[in-house]
Amino acid sequence: MSGNDLFDTRLLVLIAAVALTSGCSAATHEGSDASASERTIASSASVPVEAEPVAPAPATSGPVASASSSGPRCDAAPRAAVVPLRELSIDSVPALNATPELPVRAVAPASLEAFPAVSEDGSLLVALASDAEDFSGRSVERLRFYALPSGRVESTFMLHDERADDAAKSPKERAHHLRELETAWSQAKSQLARSKWRSLEKGAGISGSECEPWATSYSHDAASQRFRRFEIADMDTALQLGPDGRVASLQVRRVVDGKVVSTHTHVTFPAVGSAFGHGECGAITGLEAAFITPDRRTLFLLPQAALGGDSCAATLQLDRVKIVTLPPT
């Protein structure tokens, strides 16, 4: 073999070795990227991120297509949800502070899952809240009925009030307190039994949209899980808060006849805090939860607030709820 032939052979072997090494390196990097992506997805399940989500390719037929209407869709107008009618009841369990002398009851946690809900004829909305008094942490559980579309409070039933439990000192006071609670439970169940109900759909806070015309700057506050923008019932909804922390502009984008239609509604929230007898305090900073009725006409908003220190006590959840009737498109 000549010197030139030997040189050519060594050169070919070197090229092949470099190519093989590059291929292994690329495969290793691809595996590393996949692992990093999986870790990011796992962490984003509990903490919202600011990046725009990648929209999955829409299914055109079959069960996947029919089940893929959880977010805003660019190709169809919002449809009323098919939510089954059901009878609602509230189960009870012994309260944590129950004693033989004061056998008070609390709402069973599973009973909370069906609320809020709207009546069969759409005239009433009902909400059940298991809450705690600010600072003291004492349990307060109430069932509240609202008239629709006005959002006016129709009735409220106190099912458990640890504050009143503590105040009932004598046997006579305890007996009177128990009678009041049993009456509230009986009346609440009777009111629920007058109709069948449909549960409301819960919205999800987002930081982007799969529909380009709907891109806005509203996003999560990852530290507190509050949000000002959310997807709900094929709609993209943004809450822009005013400087006083009470008045907001609610912007809703929907697709109607293939076009994006935007509507604005001014919303004034109730007070979110009390300055211990010295007026109102606190400001709304986002939403803890947002729900919509199956007919897509009414929003049930639970705001989240910044109270500003120990001189401001948060109001109970049902006292700061805002019910909003959406304008027609």
Write the layout of secondary structure elements.
Elements: H1 3-44, H2 62-66, E1 92-94, E2 105-107, E3 117-119, E4 124-132, E5 139-147, E6 153-161, H3 162-167, H4 171-192, E7 197-199, E8 201-202, E9 204-205, E10 220-221, E11 226-227, E12 229-232, E13 235-241, E14 247-256, E15 259-268, E16 273-274, E17 280-281, E18 283-292, E19 298-306, E20 313-314, E21 322-325
Antiparallel strand pairs: 1-2, 3-4, 3-7, 4-5, 5-6, 8-18, 9-12, 10-11, 12-13, 13-14, 14-15, 16-17, 16-20, 18-19, 19-21
Describe this structure in words.
This protein has 329 residues and is of the alpha+beta class. The chain has two domains: 108 residues, no CATH class; 125 residues, no CATH class. The protein is built from four helices and 21 strands. A five-stranded antiparallel sheet has the order 6-5-4-3-7. A hairpin with a 2-residue loop joins strand 14 and strand 15. The longest helix is centred in the N-terminal third of the chain and has 42 residues. The protein is globular. The N and C termini lie far apart (86 Å).
